[in-house]
Amino acid sequence: MRLVPECAPYTVFVDAISKAFCATGLRVGWIVGPAPVVARMRDIIGHVGAWAPRPEQVATARWLANAAGVDAFHAEMLPAVLERLNALHDGLSALRKRGYPVDAIAPQGAIYLTARFDLIGRRAGGGKPLATNEDIRAFLLKEAGFAVVPFQAFGVREDSGWFRLSVGAVSVPEITAAMGRLEHALAPFARVGAGDRT
What we know:
By secondary structure, the chain is of the alpha+beta class. The protein has helices spanning about 15-20, 35-50, 55-65, 65-95, 135-145, 170-185; strands at about 15, 30, 100-105, 110-115, 120-125, 150, 160-165, 195.
């Protein structure tokens, strides 16, 4: 808004502590926008009957008032998040180069990476074929301890193998360890392995 102030009457900015500060699970958010739009949103949310607990709201308001603290936190957090995103992307890209059925879109901000596990219709060890994104999610969690969120959570209907991965609460060493577990779990599906497609 500082760069193009004349856009202010047409701009709505929504953010939350879970995204802006990697505070996964905390649902305290805020909005900046034209007063009539914000007033209508406030009226709607006031009738929803569900909002963040008051202590979280008070703590967030106090934290946001500490501009120097916020700046210092972001100066440390943002490069660390990018390092973790790159570690995850690089790990998945390395698996892809070695013939594993994975793909990932390069980091584009936030604390998330978009990745595809091309496992629909495939099976390992004579088990049932993986028929849905939910099957893939359960397989990755059970076999690799690797948690992913299917795109169905964001309104996508088809089972395409696309997922959202978060680096908000992990370290680079944890990502490196996860890549080893993931490689082991996906070995039956690799072009160099013994997986089969039904």
